[in-house]
Amino acid sequence: MYTPPAYSETDTALLHRLMQEWSFATLVSSEMGAPLATHLPFLVDPGGSQGLGRLVTHLARNNPHWEALEDREVLVIFQGPHAFVSVDWYDNHLTYPTWNYGAIHARGRVKLERDPEALRALLRRFIGQFQPAETKWSFDEMPEEMTAPRLRAIVGLELDITRLDGKLKFNQDKSDTDRAGVRAALSNRAEGAETACFMSRLDRMKESAK
């Protein structure tokens, strides 16, 4: 991922936090020179052989992508808020429009999990992580005759992250006045409010880290 120094983020703890928030990511690999991609939710665990963490997810067995993953190096792409930025929002108009966005690339080798009980534990983790607290449905209350076939219908995936690249491109190369103008304009646009909010949050995080 092309990342100018102004936009590079190397704080592993911060990247993990953002990966947890931007948890629905894209798994990319190749087979016989052809690219393969699957969109999946991921859990982020600390540790890993490089101290960069581990990613955990599962795929449907009917998805042929998993057959090309065992012990292969893959790329997982996490994407955050993004928005078009108009020159009109800058104090300095001698420049060009751009696009603000956040992206994180995680690389590593895949280990597949097929054991039904390990997959049962994995599904419990996913439900515990993503299901709203007020939801009454319970995975463990489902009849085993329904759960067992579902466990046979998925394959677990664990990725030991060996490289982690973070890019947070939110006008850090612009003046404080220009960045304030962008935040103000985006906050008043339905398609830009999330990006404006993240820009303010990023400033607070960087300030608290000093």
Automatic annotation (TrEMBL):
Transmembrane segments: none annotated. It comes from the Bacteria. It holds the Pfam family FMN_bind_2. SUPFAM superfamilies: FMN-binding split barrel. This is FMN-binding negative transcriptional regulator.
